[in-house]
Amino acid sequence: MREESQSAPAVDESSVMMPEHAMAVQKLYESCRATFTRNAGSFPAQGLQRVRSILDSIKPSDVGLDENAPIQQNSRTNLLGRINGRRGKVSPAISYLHLYECNYFSMGIFCLPKSAVIPLHNHPGMTVMSKLLYGSMHVKAYDWVDHNDVSHPRLAKLVVDRTLTAPCESSILYPKSGGNMHVFTAITPCAVLDVLAPPYSAEDGRHCTYFRALPYASRTGEYVVRCIQIDKRKIPNRGAKEGAVSS
After folding, report:
1. Does pLDDT of 179 surpass 90?
2. Are 230 and 86 spatial neighbours (Cβ–Cβ below 8 Å)?
3. For a pLDDT cut of 70, what percent of the chain falls above it?
4. Of 73, 87, 109, 168, whose Cβ has the fewest other Cβ atoms within 10 Å?
5. What's the 3-state SS for 151-180?
6. Whole-number Å distance between alpha carbons of 41 and 111
7. Mean per-residue pLDDT of the chain
8. Which GO terms describe its molecular function (predicted)?
9. What is the 3-state secondary structure of the chain?
10. Do residues 176 and 143 lie in contact, with contact meaning Cβ atoms separated by under 8 Å?
11. pTM for this model (two decimals)
């Protein structure tokens, strides 16, 4: 559920008798609330660093997760699955655990079974911070070659191609750099905590768009691909929440 303003705290702001894991989430919330005060593509570097520092300190137990126990599905969990292109083979379902959302930022956790894939997607006009809580995943991320080009298909350059294994530092992407479009592949069961600022919003033109990356011959020495937009209707069980696909 999205809050229309930041007037109400995510949880009780009193730290008296507050469980340790709730305090960690509260600390992250308060830092996000202080930093993301408007729907903007850029934010103060000091504020972003403060949020990243808190993300770096968060452990699975801080958000109520046990990497050795299966995710329990409930009313606050969305499922996301996809066709991975191998003749109709379906990727394992992904759980999305919603933590908080307002007009300015959102917090949520993706829990991926082994071999699950979050397909290539973008974050238009958004700053996104991600923290791998447990497990290993491979990340490929791209930025547009020409941000003024609106043609389809469109050229993008590879900026991230690596495997992350927890514990590791959080990562950040920006509207025009850092790998604004990315795809996640779970090497082992894993979980990712995402902070989006601002969140996806169809009303504000921040649609989540899926792509397929095809090789393209580049003369610049960079690894460049052609990104072809995918019809969302062809990605089954995408999740009831448009903003569920983030990272």
Report:
1. yes
2. no
3. 73
4. 87
5. CCCEEEEEEEEEEEECCCCCEEECCCCCCC
6. 27
7. 81
8. cysteine dioxygenase activity; metal ion binding
9. CCECCCCCCCCCCCCCCCCHHHHHHHHHHHHHHHHCCCCCCCCCHHHHHHHHHHHHHCCHHHHCCCCCCCCCCCCCEEEECCECCCCCCECCCEEEEEEEEECCCEEEEEEECCCCEEEEECCCCCEEEEEEEECEEEEEEEEECCCCCCCCCEEEEEEEEEEEECCCCCEEECCCCCCCEEEEEECCCEEEEEEEECCCECCCCECCCEEEEEEECCCCCCCEEEEEEECHHHCCCCCCCHHHCCC
10. yes
11. 0.80
Token pair of 162, please?
Answer: 């690596």
- What type of residue sits at position 114? K
Pick from 204, 203, 225, 208: which is nearest to 216 by CA?
225
The pair of structure tokens assigned to 57 is: 């300190």
Region at 205 (left for phi over 0; alpha for psi -120 to 50; beta for the rest)? left
Question: Residues 167, 119, 176, 216: is their CA dihedral positive or negative?
Answer: positive
Token pair listed for 68: 């050795």
**How far apart (Å, rounded) are the C-alpha atoms in residues 122 and 247?**
9
CB-CB neighbours of 244 under 10 Å? 24
